[in-house]
Amino acid sequence: MANTSADNAFFERLLSNSESIDFKKLFKVFLSRWYWIIGSLGLFGVLCFLYLKFAVPQFVASVTVKYLEKQSELDEFSSSKPTYIFNSATTDYLTEKFNVRSQEVVENALYKLNNPFTFFRVKDFRKIDVYPSKPLDLEVISFDPDTYENGVFSITENLGLVYRLEEREVTLPLRLGAIVTVPGLSFKIKEISTAKGYEFDFVHNEIARQAENFIGRIGMEEVEEAMPVMNMSFRHHSAAFTKDFLEKLIEAYREFDLRQKQKSSDLTIKFINDQLGIYSDSLKVAARDLELFKKQNQVLDISSSANEITGKLRELEQEKQKLEIQRAYISILEKSLGTTFEPVNYLSVGLDAGSDGILISLLERFNELITKRKDLLLKYSPNAQAVKNIDEELNKFRTQILDNISLQKQKIGGMDKIMTSSISTFQKRFNQIPGLEKNYLYLQSNFEVNKNIYSLLLNKEIESSIVRAGMLPSFVVITRPDIDKVSPKSIQIIILAIFFGLSFGIGSILLARFTNGKFTEIGNVEAHPKVTLLGVVQHFPEKVTNTSKDLNLLLSDRSIFTESLSSIRTKLSFAGSNLEKREGKSGKQLLITSEKSGEGKSFVTINLALSLTKTGKKVIVIGADLRKSKLHHYFDDRNKNGLSEYLQEKEKDINVTIRHSSVPNLDYIVSGIPPFNPGELLQTPLFEELLKYCRQNYDYVLLDTAPAGLVADNIPLLTTSDHVLFIIRWLYSEKDSYRLAGQLADDYNVKDVKIIINDFYADALHTSITSGSGYSSGYNQYRYDYSYRDNGYYTEKPRNLIKRIFNLR
Description:
Layout: H1 2-17, E1 20-21, H2 23-32, H3 34-54, E2 58-67, H4 96-100, H5 103-113, E3 117-123, E4 126-129, E5 136-143, E6 152-155, E7 161-164, E8 169-172, E9 179-182, E10 185-192, E11 200-204, H6 207-215, E12 218-222, E13 229-236, H7 239-297, H8 304-337, H9 357-377, H10 385-431, H11 435-469, E14 475-477, E15 482-487, H12 490-515, E16 531-538, H13 549-553, H14 560-574, E17 588-594, H15 601-613, E18 619-623, H16 643-647, H17 654-657, E19 659-660, E20 666-669, H18 678-681, H19 685-697, E21 700-704, H20 715-718, E22 723-729, H21 738-747, E23 753-760, E24 770-771, H22 778-786, H23 801-805
Parallel strand pairs: 16-23, 17-21, 17-22, 18-20, 18-21, 22-23
Antiparallel strand pairs: 1-24, 2-13, 2-14, 2-15, 3-4, 3-11, 5-10, 6-7, 6-11, 7-8, 9-10, 12-13, 19-20
Helix pairs in contact: 3-12, 5-6, 5-7, 7-11, 8-10, 8-11, 9-10, 14-15
Family: Belongs to the CpsD/CapB family. Belongs to the etk/wzc family.
Pfam family, one: AAA_31
Protein name: non-specific protein-tyrosine kinase
């Protein structure tokens, strides 16, 4: 229970000291650099405009095609289906994307489109495809792709024609009926449809190269998995061309698909026609011989026994001829099986259900495996294990089919021997018939056999032709061409430009805060117990010249800069000394230092001295920075016979060393020529006597010393001064420069180090965006922020409009 209470107390303290983001302060940070955000929006707005102006648009035309299950209108009368018909159980239709993108189909579509030249309008540093408009109607006379150099033709504003190559230009005639000839290309100008003042470029479209370019722009994607519906699309920069080409592509694909289907029927019809030619000649010879025999012998009839024998012979001869046809079919089937992985269209090589049921079932299973293999190749490589397993099974079936074909050949051979033996038997019986009747019956039988075979082949030829004529494409287009502009999409680009503009502007503000390594956190200066914030010196609105002119300009009005120094002066007047023992009513000694050069020590020293003199105090300023002092510039002094010469006893008259300024009650001692041992000189007894003299004759002694973060010259003076003033310059000093003040207090036992923030100006960009009870120096934070709301107490010079808009000082 005790542990629980302790944990609760710990978390309460943790939460009480935690800081959270104050969104009101965060909004002020962004508002302080609103012009960054506006500028960023303007930049991205210009980029957006230029992109929309010059970007080449891209259009996509698409249609939806559905693959059918029947190949012709006669399929419903047939009990079997061809092996290449698509159905819901296979995904053969997915392989059709390769047919659509084939070179043959795309080239055929381009031939149908009949667009030998592409014209571009030259305007605003860009080229615009003007299809279907044609400034010139041109007819290609000849074209040789091997010698054509693929140059660009240009129609000038003065109706001139120029042929441009990389290295040269050729001027060509541009008039009606003219024949233009360049290496590899010749064309005739049939019509001129442009006028002066317009400039066009055009190029010749080589079908083969254009087809290679278009193949990658053709899309063929499955609408839904395992459904034979595909989305066919084409992408191009011209909307009209995109639509027209897609329509021609569908026509070319339909023709290609029909040609592929009709190849099977064409093979069958060719085989039948070859056989018809053979039996047509045999039939003509048999008919002529029979007619001649009848005329010569005047034979009208024969006996019934002879008719019976000849009838049997005729049937046997006819069956033998059928066996020969079957033998030819079997040979074609064996050749078509081959060693490749392509389906065998067994219906087109003469086998039917009456030939051999086992062989047909093997062929059906073989084609199913071929289809399955093609499906696997869509996902895997040919070396994948699944494909190899299919290949092994296919080889087994191929072996079984070849074995069955061998059995078929043996079967046909056996039947042929039986037929030959039977024919021989009947011929022996026929030879017993008297000679005249025998010859007649022989001729009659030969004629009937050829006639029946010819009639059978003719019927097959008609049947195959009907099937071929009734074939349909494997697909049907079920939607109209839909054209969509895919890029650039104006609304999306504008939204993105606004988004990136805001992001870039806000990101720049946050980046500026994140990468700022300079001092901005005034609330952190009093984190050390021996360090206090004495005050904030506001930004001086005028240009500092570091000359005597500044003495008359500084603190000459009731500006916020003057009042900030008056506030520091007042705090110094009531601040207790760091010294425990002081010399009677001697003046106060103030040591002014900083971390590095350029933080405004001399500037603050002079202004603080001027502010003290306004209250009637007698002040002396000593240039104790013997290395790189700037104090003498404010008095237009040549920096000779100064502190360094006095400490080196080169100048022993203190009245020469101490000089009077043009400001009443303000005297000064310049640093003099830099010596080689500045640190040692500041520790001499002579310098201590000088300081004692100054404290006895002046109310305030201000020591403008070297930066404590760079050299240790002023370290001995830290413990002998009433007040140590540490200068930090706003947005100039290092981020953690205030820590040096605490380090000096600890290392040299200084009771109190007072920090003065110099050159401060309100800038919400660098203010804290967190809120929490742990924020230190809340009153001072409020004080320097509130001081800008003068409510008429200050005579601040009004800033011009530009400075007020952009918060410039």
